[in-house]
Amino acid sequence: MIENAIELKGLTKAYRGRKGSQPKVALKGIDLNIPRGSMFGLLGPNGAGKSTTINILAGLVNKTAGTARVWGYDIEEDPRNARANIGVVPQELTFDAFFTPREMLEVQAGMYGVPQADRRTEELLKAVHLWEQRDAYSRTLSGGMKRRLLVAKAMVHTPPILILDEPTAGVDIELRQQLWDYVRELHARGTTIVLTTHYLEEAEELCDTIAIINHGEVVACEPTKQLLKRIDEKQVTIMVAETLSEVPGSLAAFDASLNGDHGVTVQLNQSVANVGAVLAAVQKAGLTIVDISTRETDLEDIFLQLTRRQSGEAA
Ligand SMILES: Nc1ncnc2c1ncn2[C@@H]1O[C@H](COP(=O)(O)OP(=O)(O)OP(=O)(O)O)[C@@H](O)[C@H]1O
């Protein structure tokens, strides 16, 4: 029984530069294990190397160095088995416009050598809510429908790993929800899911483990909950009736700053947060509290901190 659905060791990719220009190093020796059965998020700013990683796994881009194993199979030594164990939903909506959804899944199943008796065309089209459109030309489908059709196409050979590259870009909220319902169902049935997304909230909600890559390097890889604890901060904003021109002296011991004319925001260490002490200090200054709000760290804060920190180091 394998432990990791995907294992990358020292994975490196340098794209050849145009004539006379330097090669572009997109991946700088990535080490990454994606546990079997996980719902794994691969995050990173534009150009971080996410698509390059996925395209190497899908066999669309050749790596420069390092190794990649899919379901235990080395992509170089055993490309057939590696590819049989992975389904990839690409970022680009690439289609043969004159195939219908039904034909497209049948052709894809044929390419993977799935026998007629084992084909799941109807089940898949129903699962992605495209059964009604089964015989329509795919060029007539909306962007969201095309995306869902690509998910069905990636699943024709029932791979144990499904990779989705920016699957909800351009998909409206309702359809996004339907897509995630289906992905969650696949995950519940044992499929390992890997997704890249720009929507950090989506990753926070869906993924049990998250890796952040930046400039071709992994800057974090840990369970989502643990990652969220990394920045141990909470913000408390207190609004008062009086007009403030400076932070009250009674708050000198805190990391406080003015927030408009009537507010003060205090950064607190979550594990030792003492909101009571902050409130007492505000009252000690003779101010009348009219409102209090708190904000905890979310993935976006962590993402920005990790990716900015690295840019700062590089500068
Ligand atoms: N075919 C190519 N030739 C040259 N450079 C490339 C090629 N494909 C990607 N790159 C470069 O490699 C780097 C990583 O790109 P990649 O598409 O993997 O990033 P990404 O994290 O998927 O970003 P995005 O979210 O924008 O797709 C970028 O600097 C990009 O410009």
TrEMBL record:
<keyword id="KW-0067">ATP-binding</keyword>
<protein>
    <submittedName>
        <fullName>ABC transporter ATP-binding protein</fullName>
    </submittedName>
</protein>
<dbReference type="Pfam" id="PF00005">
    <property type="entry name" value="ABC_tran"/>
</dbReference>
<dbReference type="InterPro" id="IPR027417">
    <property type="entry name" value="P-loop_NTPase"/>
</dbReference>
<dbReference type="GO" id="GO:0016887">
    <property type="term" value="F:ATP hydrolysis activity"/>
</dbReference>
<dbReference type="InterPro" id="IPR050763">
    <property type="entry name" value="ABC_transporter_ATP-binding"/>
</dbReference>
<dbReference type="GO" id="GO:0005524">
    <property type="term" value="F:ATP binding"/>
</dbReference>
<dbReference type="InterPro" id="IPR003439">
    <property type="entry name" value="ABC_transporter-like_ATP-bd"/>
</dbReference>
<dbReference type="InterPro" id="IPR003593">
    <property type="entry name" value="AAA+_ATPase"/>
</dbReference>
<dbReference type="InterPro" id="IPR017871">
    <property type="entry name" value="ABC_transporter-like_CS"/>
</dbReference>
<feature type="domain" description="ABC transporter">
    <location>
        <begin position="6"/>
        <end position="240"/>
    </location>
</feature>
<keyword id="KW-0813">Transport</keyword>
<keyword id="KW-0547">Nucleotide-binding</keyword>
